[in-house]
Write a structure and sequence with these properties.
This protein is mainly alpha-helical. Helices cover about 75% and strands about 0% of the residues.
């Protein structure tokens, strides 16, 4: 998982301008680094099998899951990058990107762990639901922190990232809420202008309902994660589920 997360971080750093494409040899160099990181994530599974004596069938299953789910998660990261440059988009597209990116990583981690420990298909899927919803809930809280007035520094507004609160504010009609129109106008400016007026934009996003919307959505996914945690605990009544339920 560490290599898969590193691959996602590479895309994220390129998007946030924390890393310039020319620093890694342009697009071909970035693609090569991604390929190496993804190959290492698969090699790590096989190395673990040799050390632990994991049944070959479980290794094959875990490798298949990793191949499928890592592409889903990285595809979500790519969607997120694309949406940042778009003015014409749908709210559901922004939410799908979050579900694929953050939810995909959470699902991948949880399903891999379960697949290496059990042959129970239903249990593996329940673990995936837990990981996916927990990761999305945490991502939404992070998105809120990126736009809440007087909140911590964030590049979300400067880079026009279509996080849930920003995407919602942009989706609201101006005649319904004038603050939405101000958000739309402000985000059409230059990155420097957006950074300079960040606090005003944060207040308008809040007034347009973006933060409330993202908070409700986060609670929905946290509740789903908690439900999945309870299902997992019922499957193993001999285990203490409090830590699993607590983090949801």
């Amino acid at each position: 998982m560490a290599f898969l997360i590193a691959a996602g971080d590479l895309l994220d750093d390129l998007q946030d301008n924390d890393l310039r494409a020319e620093d890694v040899g342009g697009a071909p160099g970035a693609a090569e680094m991604m390929a190496v990181l993804l190959a290492l994530s698969n090699n790590a599974l096989h190395a673990g099998q040799r050390k632990t004596g994991l049944p070959p069938a479980r290794l094959a299953r875990a490798t298949g899951l990793l191949a499928t789910l890592q592409l889903r998660a990285l595809g979500g990261q790519a969607d997120d990058v694309t949406l940042s440059s778009l003015d014409d988009f749908k709210l559901e597209d922004a939410l799908k990107a979050t579900l694929r990116k953050s939810g995909g990583l959470g699902r991948c981690a949880a399903m891999l762990g379960a697949a290496l420990a059990t042959d129970d298909d239903a249990l593996v899927e329940t673990a995936g639901r837990f990981g996916e919803n927990l990761a999305v809930a945490r991502q939404l809280l992070n998105d809120i922190a990126g736009v809440i007035p007087d909140g911590p520094p964030s590049t979300d507004i400067a880079l026009r990232r279509k996080t849930a609160p920003i995407a919602f504010a942009l989706a609201v009609a101006e005649d319904v809420n004038p603050a939405a129109g101000r958000v739309r106008a402000a985000l059409s400016g230059t990155p420097e202008q957006r950074a300079l007026n960040s606090e005003d934009i944060r207040r308008d996003i809040q007034e347009a309902g973006g933060i409330s919307y993202a908070w409700i959505l986060a609670r929905v996914h946290a509740t789903r994660a908690r439900q999945a945690a309870l299902e997992l605990s019922r499957a193993h009544p001999d285990k203490d589920p409090s830590w699993l339920i607590g983090i949801a």
